[in-house]
Amino acid sequence: MRHIIQSLLFISFLSTTLVFGQQRTESPVEFHKISDRLYEITGGRGSNGGAYMGDNGVLLIDTKMDQASEEQVLEELRKMTDRPVRYLVNTHSDRDHINGNRYLPPTVTFIAHENCRKEFFIPGQNGTPSEWEQPELLSFTPSVTFNDQMEIHLGAQTVQLWYFGIGHTTGDIVVYFPEEKTAFIGDQIFLTRPQLIHSYKGGSSLEQVKTLTRMLATIDAVKFCSGHSEITDRAGIENHIALMKQKQQTVMDMIDQNKDLEQIKAAFEANENRLVESIYHEINQQKESTHARSEPVSYQICPHWQGGKERQQDLYHPGPEI
Predict the structure, then answer these.
(1) Number of helices (H) and strands (E), helices first, in the chain?
(2) Residue 164's closest CA among 116, 114, 126, 208?
(3) Residue pair 168/188 in contact by the 8 Å Cβ criterion
(4) Consecutive H or E run containing 175
(5) pTM here?
(6) pLDDT of residue 296
(7) DSSP classification of residue 11
(8) 233, 188 contact by CB (below 8 A)
(9) How confident is the model at residue 91 (pLDDT cuts 50, 70, 90)?
(10) Three-class SS state of 210
(11) Residue 87 is inside which H or E element, if any?
């Protein structure tokens, strides 16, 4: 009898898991109107993205994880406009933002920061080679890259692409729509779960704080769309910066008290372990680097200045896998 009950429980669990997985996979793609031209795209498998209807074509921001989800995006677009998709902008190199590139028409131009393109081709955390090295996928990687800033003109409309520095990865950009005062910022913020920092791609929590601060000082956006959170405002970004600084300060203080990593992690929620590890290793790397130069210890990475313009140097330097 006990074996029968165990079997029934296992079947029930398996059925529930399959249904749950099916519901997640089949979450419908939805376009949420921000203006007559600009939409946030949610649902399907993968991250949130965006679509902008220009005079002479459509610009998409990021793609979904699988073919079915990306085809839903294109199907919804066809209901809204007969203009072709001309550009796809990848905000950064995470799979849930780029995997669907391969399902777009071959006439689309793919655009990203130069560091983002490099990250398409680096091995995964487990050392496996990047699939984007395959010849049949190369045409779906960014063919147009930029360094600091770029503008895309869709008829009379202008879309601004900005790079403010290292954060979630080394290649995160902001796609800014001045008329709507709306910015798409990829995974530079997570509002309902701990911030994710890809240390193995060279991401940095310490730099992310400064990058977001530069963003707020440079563009006058009032709405910020991100990959995995609801649309937020400037106060939401400021609160995120303050929270990150608070966590960093706590880790710094505990390091100064000679606490080890496990003791420090115990002071945070369990789901913050990955972020805490990133902060811990970043601070220790800075201390080691500073000590090697025989300079006073500083927990801040100072940006280099060239000709009065702030410009981050050595942007691509993968950190440890953690």
Answers:
(1) 9, 14
(2) 208
(3) yes
(4) strand 174-177
(5) 0.83
(6) 53
(7) H
(8) no
(9) very high
(10) helix
(11) strand 85-89
